[in-house]
Amino acid sequence: MSKFSLGVDLGGTKTEIIALDDKGNECFRKRVSTVKGSYADTIKTISGLVNDAQKHINCQCPIGIAIPGTVSNKTNVIKNANSFWLNGHDLKADLSAAVNNDAIFLENDANCFALSEAVDGAGKDGSLVWGLILGTGSGSGLVHDKKIWRGRNLLGGEWGHNPLPWLSEAEMQDWADVKCFCGKKNCTETFVSGTGLEREYAKRINQFDPDALVYPFSSLQIIEKMHAHDELASECFKDYVSRLARAIANYVNFLDPDVIVLGGGMSNIDEIYDLLPNEVSKYIFGGEFDTPIVKAQFGGSSGVRGAAWLPDMHNAM
Question: Are 225 and 236 within 8 A, CB to CB?
Fold first, then answer.
């Protein structure tokens, strides 16, 4: 890493910046609310944070930015971002002009999460690190020898928009009316995200609306019910773990990573780490599974820390 580098995490609700020194120590941090729907305001927000950080550390330095999408290899514009106002724009060029800095590196936020945990987090001792974000949606990133594995089509680590394997007939019937935001059905994300748990509980209490964006009970409330020995909540969580285990096993069967790091709100449920290994082994070819499944060391800060590691990764390539 250079003497300092900046990391920006462009999230759906907040935009955050940190400055790291060459040992990974945090020297500056600031968080502001994300202005939704306006590309111009996004440029203004990020450039303002960069100026504040550089003023604090008294130097201009390379900038890594975690984005909720990816940069097209063909056009250099943002695509597949759920923050839709970013799509179709050359964010790197526009930010470079706004802050007068050409050393800007953009990367998918799930990849930044995985990079952070692979460099100096919970996966630092692994060669192939698989990072999973289990939040409102689900994301996944792969890091091999401290470098993000993007793939030719920038799909390296894509997990949430593959079909959930080994669906039972009951699951196929019960989830037939659920469509992923990508337009397909039975995507892993619809099952293993926190939203997936909320949707399952809503179905069990007959309060499911296929067009709803918010469900009667949040994932946190459902887990609280489970801890209070609510039988229905416990059954929903058991099914959630089974589905997550199948999705993980399907990937492990051909990637076989050294460590699996979980982030996002669902990663804070302690029971997951007790139950998952045995569940995953039921679907692993050969039945033997000893890959560590661990909680992210840096939690919600992993994305922004991973962004700050981007310049160093590029310099090492």
Answer: no
Measured between alpha carbons, how far is 72 from 65 in angstroms, rounded to an integer?
15
Q: Which of 42, 33, 40, 38 is nearest to 15 (CA)?
A: 33
SS3 243: helix
Whole-structure pTM value: 0.92
Helix (H, G, I), strand (E, B) or coil at 70: strand
Residues 262, 251 contacting (CB under 8 angstroms): no
> Structure tokens of 85?
């106002």
Helix, strand, coil shares of the chain as percentages rounded to 5?
Answer: 40, 20, 40
Q: Which position has the token pair 């394997």? A: 165
List, for residues 232-279, the tens digit of each pLDDT value.
999 999 999 999 999 999 999 999 999 999 999 999 999 999 999 999
Q: Which of 27, 252, 247 is nearest to 130 (CA)?
A: 252
100 token code pair: 């007068």
